Amino acid sequence: MKKRFVFIALVLSMSHQSVPAFKIGVETDVATFITGGFHISAWYGTGDWRYRAVWSHVRVPDRVMRGGFTDGRVTTFALMADHFTDRGDMFDRWWASTGVSLWFSHVGHDDEYEVGKYWSLVIPAESGYLWGHYRKAWNSWYLNPWAGVHIRALGTSDVKVGDHTFHPYRVVPTASIKFGSGL
C-alpha cells in the first residue's frame, strides 16, 4: 500500500510540472506570405534556449529596390539560437537571437531581360516577444512579433544584370509577426 501511494504521488507530481525539460515546434512568418513567398522554421528548446532551423523564400517588393532594379527574390537557409530572458512560462517572454544564414538571391532590372544571381553569408541579430505560448486558451499556439537586422558578412559584391550592376545591401532591417505552435 505504501509503495502504491509513493508511486501515485510521484506520477501526479510529474504530471503537474509547469515547465517540461524540452519542447519542439514549428513556426511561420506572415510577411513572407504577404510578398508571395513562404517561411518554415522547426525548433527545439530547453531551459532559456531555443534552436531553430529556417527555410524561407521572400519576394522583395519593387518599391524597396533602388536604381530600377526589380524582381528581387531571396531563398534563405539559417541556423539560429534564441535566448529567452526573465523567468516565466517556457518561451513565453522576451528573446534575442543570432545565428548564421545563407541567402541565394536573384534580381532583375526594368531595362533588361536577364537576371543577376548572387549569394550572401548573413549574420542576423533579432529580438521579439513570444506571446500566448502554452496558455490554456491558446493550447500550444503563439504569436511572435519581432524585428532585427541582417548583416551581410560575405558574398557576391557586384551582380551584373545586363548592362547594370546591382550591389547587394550590406544591412537589411526586417520586422514581422511569426505564428507558431509547439509541443
Describe this structure as you would to a colleague.
The chain has 183 residues and is mainly β. The protein is 10% helix and 58% strand. The protein has an 8-stranded antiparallel β-barrel. It has a two-stranded antiparallel ribbon with strand order 8-9. Residues 4-17 have low confidence and may be disordered.
Architecture, according to CATH?
A: Beta Barrel
Structural class: mainly beta
Helical amount among residues, as a percent range?
A: 10-25%
Number of helices: 2
Number of domains: 1
Question: What's the end-to-end separation, in Å?
Answer: 35 Å
Strand order of the largest sheet: 1-2-3-4-5-6-7-10
**Care to count the β-strands?**
10
Put the structure in a nutshell.
With 183 residues, the chain is mainly β. 10% of the residues lie in helices and 58% in strands.
